[in-house]
Amino acid sequence: MDKHGIFGGSSSEDVEAPLLLLPPAAREGAKERAERRVRALLAHRYPAVAAGPAACAAVCALVDLGGRREARNMLGVLAWVFIWWVTGAVPLAVASMAPLFLFPLLGVSSANAVAKAYMDDVISLVLGSFILALAIEHYQIHRRLALNITLLFCGDPVRPPPLLLGITGTTMFVSMWIHNTACTVMMMPVATGILQKLPRGGDAGAATPGCHEEVRRFSKAVVLGVVYASAIGGMVTLTGTGVNIILVGMWSSYFPEQEPITFSSWMSFGLPMALIIFLALWATLCLMYCSKNTGKILSAYLDRSHLRRELSLLGPMAFAEKMVLAVFGGLIVLWMTRTLTDDIPGWGVLFHDNVGDGTVTIMMATLLFIIPSRKNEGEKLMDWNKCRKIQWDIILLLGAGFAIADGFKSSGLTDILSDGLKFLKGAPTVVIVPVACTVSGIITEFTSDDSTTTLMLPLFAELAKSIDVQPALLMVSGAVGAQLSYLLPTGSPSNVVGFSTGHITIKDLVTTGLPLKVVAIAALTVLLPSLDF
What we know:
Layout: H1 24-27, H2 30-43, H3 46-62, H4 69-87, H5 92-96, H6 98-106, H7 111-116, H8 121-138, H9 141-154, H10 160-175, H11 180-195, H12 211-234, H13 242-254, H14 263-289, H15 294-299, H16 304-314, H17 319-337, H18 357-367, H19 392-411, H20 413-418, H21 429-443, H22 449-467, H23 471-482, H24 493-499, H25 506-527
Helix pairs in contact: 3-4, 4-6, 4-19, 6-19, 8-13, 8-18, 9-10, 9-16, 10-11, 10-12, 10-14, 11-12, 11-24, 12-14, 12-24, 13-19, 13-22, 13-23, 14-25, 17-18, 19-22, 21-23, 21-25, 22-23
């Protein structure tokens, strides 16, 4: 008989032994399981996801706007969408589509009305511009342009101020025609490619006393120059940034009786404004990050041969590149000449002013899918596969902005909110402009430029009506202020791109961006009264 007896009973030695070996998950304590569940919730961002509808429900249940149900519900929708935008609970494009179902469900507007906001002439302008930008990127035209212009300013021996002027000036010019973020992404590799020739900490070439510090400071200047120049260049044209596009759409929506903002009318204001800020940027970089010894130290590592070598690798311009440039140049001419002056009408009168900037943008972008590239048989300059990188999230964000603007107006929410800023009634321009610009300029440091514009412009539009001031004073001030996200990495994607290089810190952004912000507000205060639209 064995030790377990006839019936296989257990002995005292294994009374406490488990019958089955439990898996690790079953053996972990309650505390560990709770921590694991919390980590899973945070990883899926469920608290942030739930915060949106929770905020909307709280607003609808607790806020009383004098019995104005539509205005209360609109405020709830705004809270929901804004929380999703700020927290990144869902992708930007998904958060931007929320008005498509929230407006009809909460009675803010009908399904057809909100859907129409997601496609108009302004959206067409952005879509066509993105296609052209992708063509420029695909054929590396931006890189060729940057290397050629920078080569002119490098100098031999190296002169840091002209070199910085060449890099930042090129970035500003490119940013005038494509989105700020796309420009920064395109130009940053060009800038860092130049910096790669310079020694970094620990390199043998940095052994010279003061060499490493001079190189480190110049590297900061180059990266900061690209980041800020791309933001400044975006102010010049309507296509340079989504903020200007949103401004155009909301201006025509709120003030249809006013002169429309056209490509040429905006550029006549945006170019002088941008040039003033750009000169302030260049002076700030030279004074803060360059010394008398910088050029001497850089000359040992950087000369024109590097730029020539980079340029030679691109080879001569092919037929495809020339045609893309021709299409792009033709589009710029059409933009600038659609409307000219009251005495000299543009070509738009030939079509009874039924065409818009979006019309010609899509038309010229369509040519890219027709003109052959002459690289392979049957290949065109562009095909739809190359358009997969279109920033649909930005397009949907613009649509959401227009939908929210319409919702503000139709629900009456703007009438209520504008009462809070009526202290500006009767105030002079030198007070109204800085206040409006500063308010937008503070908010934009914590959320995207486009989101700030979407939230603030409807408020400023109704405020302008209620206090009886020229609407451009508030609308343009709010739009320009939303573009002054100069202080924090979270302010704009361009700041993140620069911050990710490892050459700059938050302190660098603050110390360099704050003077630029002050100069921008001052320049706006002086130039805005002369704006004529």
